[in-house]
């Protein structure tokens, strides 16, 4: 099943403390955003990549993209104030409507597997919405003003990743409803949930990390090294 993907690259990444958009940070001598885009560029079933960016960084983004070759069309659009606004702007560039599938992915997650993408697309076609996640491994405490209030039962808790996959019609209606009601969700799945649609989970793998803090760059280098060794073996 073919799909289009919105890869979010407009965030400022303040927790990275890099003084610039973390999408430009180098991992193994290649910008982070290029690692992420290549995952979808190498997927036969991806028909188009939509890239919401900070409008002030358009020249910089275009310069980076020109240094690498891509098989897919990459359409750059202006992002918005919030992540949700950037996704909404990206949706306006989707070519295929209705029951076709669109993925929404964080540009800072370069390690998503093709197997996960395929499973998400299949689930979205069948169910309407699908998100990847992993089971929470740590003990979770609820804390107020520095004091532990209770321990949360974790057997039903999942940490959510991206890409999140939806029928285009479902995600567009959810975003339109959010605009009308002024609702700001934490991710696209939360908008779909608020719209009254069911969202289904696909089990992901733990290495699909989001590059958020300086320490994550070390993890990313290690993952790339391990992946390269696996290919050689």
From TrEMBL:
Catalyzes the formation of 4-diphosphocytidyl-2-C-methyl-D-erythritol from CTP and 2-C-methyl-D-erythritol 4-phosphate (MEP). SUPFAM superfamilies: Nucleotide-diphospho-sugar transferases. Belongs to the IspD/TarI cytidylyltransferase family. IspD subfamily. It catalyses: 2-C-methyl-D-erythritol 4-phosphate + CTP + H(+) = 4-CDP-2-C-methyl-D-erythritol + diphosphate. This is 2-C-methyl-D-erythritol 4-phosphate cytidylyltransferase. Keywords: Isoprene biosynthesis, Nucleotidyltransferase, Transferase. Pathway: Isoprenoid biosynthesis; isopentenyl diphosphate biosynthesis via DXP pathway; isopentenyl diphosphate from 1-deoxy-D-xylulose 5-phosphate: step 2/6. GO terms for biological process: isopentenyl diphosphate biosynthetic process, methylerythritol 4-phosphate pathway. InterPro entries: IspD (IPR001228), IspD/TarI (IPR034683), IspD/TarI_cytidylyltransf_bact (IPR050088), ISPD_synthase_CS (IPR018294), Nucleotide-diphossugar_trans (IPR029044). The record marks 15, 22 as: Transition state stabilizer. HAMAP family: IspD (MF_00108). It holds the Pfam family IspD. It comes from Peribacillus faecalis.
């Amino acid at each position: 099943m073919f799909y289009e993907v919105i890869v979010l690259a407009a965030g400022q990444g303040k927790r990275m403390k890099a003084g610039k958009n973390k999408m430009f940070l180098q991992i193994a001598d290649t910008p982070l955003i290029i690692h992420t885009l290549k995952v979808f560029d190498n997927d036969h079933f991806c028909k188009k990549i939509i890239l919401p960016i900070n409008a002030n960084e358009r020249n910089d983004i275009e310069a980076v993209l020109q240094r690498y070759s891509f098989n897919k069309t990459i359409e750059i659009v202006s992002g918005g104030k919030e992540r949700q606004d950037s996704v909404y702007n990206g949706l306006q560039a989707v070519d295929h409507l209705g029951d076709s599938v669109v993925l929404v992915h964080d540009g800072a997650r370069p390690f998503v597997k093709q197997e996960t993408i395929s499973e998400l697309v299949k689930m979205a076609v069948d169910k309407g919405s699908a998100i990847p996640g992993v089971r929470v491994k740590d003990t979770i405490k609820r804390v107020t003003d520095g004091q532990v209030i209770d321990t949360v039962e974790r057997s039903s808790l999942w940490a959510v990743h991206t890409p999140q996959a939806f029928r285009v019609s479902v995600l567009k209606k959810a975003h339109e409803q959010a605009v009308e009601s002024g609702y700001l969700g934490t991710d696209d799945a939360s908008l779909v949930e608020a719209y009254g649609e069911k969202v289904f989970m696909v089990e992901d793998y733990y290495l699909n990390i989001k590059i958020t803090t300086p320490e994550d760059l070390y993890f990313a280098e290690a993952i790339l090294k391990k992946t390269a060794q696996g290919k050689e073996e």
